[in-house]
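Q: Hi! First time doing this. I have a protein sequence and I read that you can turn it into a structure. Is that right? Here it is:
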Amino acid sequence: NRIVAGIREDLEVHALRAGSICHMKETDLDGLSVFVKTRSTQVPVGATLRQDGDGIIVFFNEPQCGISPGQAAVFYNHHYEVLGGGTIESACADPEQLGMSRDNEGRPPL
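A: Yes, that's right. Below is the predicted 3D structure, encoded as structure tokens:
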């Protein structure tokens, strides 16, 4: 076992990739501005979705902590209706690690 100490910012995630996507109310999630939950008790947070092959890249509006591969990411519209979701495959502080980059104003690519 190994313990790693650091500051909270070291845990911040700006994007995640989810696979095994299930669609509920929407069949095309690409480019949608949504709310996302990655924990059952979490307050939904703002994000933008981007299609990535058979998965979805989630670009969070604000950095998030506690994102873990294997957990669910659930996407909601602005009425908090479930649009779909998937299984978190990876998460990163830098979206470019997922092969996606933001524009000069920090927006995800569309």
